[in-house]
Amino acid sequence: MKFSERLQQKLRPIWRQNHDHPFVQELGNGTLAKEKFRFYMIQDYLYLIEYSKLFALGAVKAADLGTMGKFAALLHATLHDEMALHRSYAARFGISEDELEEAEPSPITLAYTHYMLHEAQNGSLAELVAALLPCMWGYWEIGKELNAIPGAAEHELYGEWIRMYSSPEYGELAGWCIDLLDTLAAGKTEAELAKLETIFLNTTRFEYMFWDMSYHGQMWP
Ligand SMILES: Cc1ncc(CO)c(N)n1
Fold it and tell me: Which of 122, 107, 137, 176 is nearest to 12 (CA)?
């Protein structure tokens, strides 16, 4: 069994909880309150600034030029395609790009991004990929699921989000990261695989907390 299949089987119930979170459900049926989405969009922009650094670190840790180039492409796609979505939403909410960049990160945004960067900086390339994968893979799964809801992709506010994360281009990038993790996991000891599994589980849990933090507009107490 591929390592990604093992992760998928083991973590299915937790993934389901992510999909079932009211933020995700309401995003899909179009009932999500605008201010919740606005809060999410700002925090997600701050999140992506840090997240994109994982791709830069991936290029540093890559063992061959092909992998290095792919991480450079992922870095570019995040900064210029994915974050363009956020800049476009920000414009609709009347938020400038400077305001977006200078917003205060919430405790969960800080904890999540710092956790990933810690694993990426201190671990091997496999640990880096285990840290970043639940974000990409999870959004691709959520994007596809929401896109299957009739009319969801045409929603005047949330349609753009759903179209981005269900797009074949996004799926192709997520698929490449899944394959890379499987390649890197091949031949590792059970103890090493367990470490990767823990990192993957923790970032999967952080994904849930990110939805929850956004739904409740949670900043410092
Ligand atoms: C919190 C979060 N996870 C994953 C993605 C997908 O890149 C994102 N934009 N934000």
Answer: 137
Q: Write the class of the CATH domain 3-8+27-216.
A: mainly alpha
What string of DSSP letters covers 106-144? PHHHHHHHHHHHHHHHHS-HHHHHHHHHHHHHHHHHHHH
Which protein residues touch ligand 1 with a CB less than 6 Å away? 44, 47-48, 135-136, 139, 207, 210
Distance (Å, whole) CA 127 – CA 198: 10
pTM of the model: 0.97
186 CA from centroid of ligand 1 (Å): 27
What are the start-end ranges of the H helices in 30-185?
34-61, 65-77, 83-92, 97-102, 107-122, 125-147, 159-165, 168-185
ipTM for the whole complex? 0.97
Residue 6, pLDDT score: 96
Closest C-alpha to ligand 1, atom 10: 44
Span 35-60, mean pLDDT? 98
